[in-house]
Write a structure and sequence with these properties.
This protein has about 70 residues and is mainly alpha-helical. It has helices at about 15-25, 30-50, 60-65. The relative contact order is 0.07.
């Protein structure tokens, strides 16, 4: 496994309490939960980036598409 980097984030107390409750239900720490959320986001991003094949033939669809 690669080296871990330290990242400090600031979140409001309501968001932290939500994360804490969710982490307790999964029997993990808040830090582990945030790492898992970020990991899933990166995997999803990479998967979507690979499946997007490129530009569309239709300029209208290309303009209003989420793919950029």
């Amino acid at each position: 496994m690669s080296k871990r980097k330290e990242v400090n984030i600031l979140i409001d107390s309501r968001a932290y309490n939500f994360l804490k409750t969710r982490a307790q239900k999964n029997f993990i720490t808040v830090s582990e939960l945030i790492s898992e959320i970020l990991r899933r986001s990166i995997v999803s991003y990479k998967k979507n980036k690979q499946t997007s094949s490129g530009k569309s033939d239709d300029k209208f669809i290309e303009y209003f598409s989420r793919r950029r």
